[in-house]
Amino acid sequence: MVTRRSAILLLAALVAAPVAAARANEFHPYDAATVQKAIASGKLVVIHVYAPWRLQCRMQASILDALKDDPAYQGVAFFKVDYDHQKDVVAKLDCPRSTVIAYKGGKEVARMSWGVTRNVVVNVLKAAM
Q1: In the 8-state DSSP scheme, what is residue 53?
Q2: What's the average model confidence in pLDDT over 2-6?
């Protein structure tokens, strides 16, 4: 017999499950230790070097935001580098703003700067698949 409390807990779990799944592919702020751990694990990793005042960055972010929830990219770890406030990371990555970098198997497999079409961004993500 299902108690009222059990039913409420089950309902809460069912409601929370899609929310947890939806957040699985959120962009996370770049943290060197976290990113290095993800890359070293062989996990698929995408890094977006982003400056909010750049039109190209905003266009890439819009495309990536739409793609990150696509089931094809489930399990990809997405990170965003703040171009204006993380200059040390930008220098280490040796890239300009508006850059998308993909890692697979612990190694960089694709990189693109300035591209603003869906196809160009998808090609970088496909390289990590």
Answers
A1: T
A2: 50
Report yes or no: 112 and 63 within 8 Å, Cβ to Cβ: no
Q: Which residues pair with 92 in a beta bridge?
A: none
**Mean pLDDT for the stretch of residues 94-116:** 95
Q: CB neighbours of 34 closer than 8 A, spacing ≥ 6?
A: 28, 79
One-letter amino acid at 13 equals A
Q: From CA 110, how far away is CA 129, in angstroms rounded?
A: 11
Residue 17 CA, chain-centre distance (Å), reads 20
CATH 3.40.30.10 fits 25-127, yes or no: yes
pLDDT tens-digit map of 50-95? 999 999 999 999 999 998 888 998 889 999 999 999 999 999 999 9
Domain boundaries of the chain, sorted by first residue: 25-127
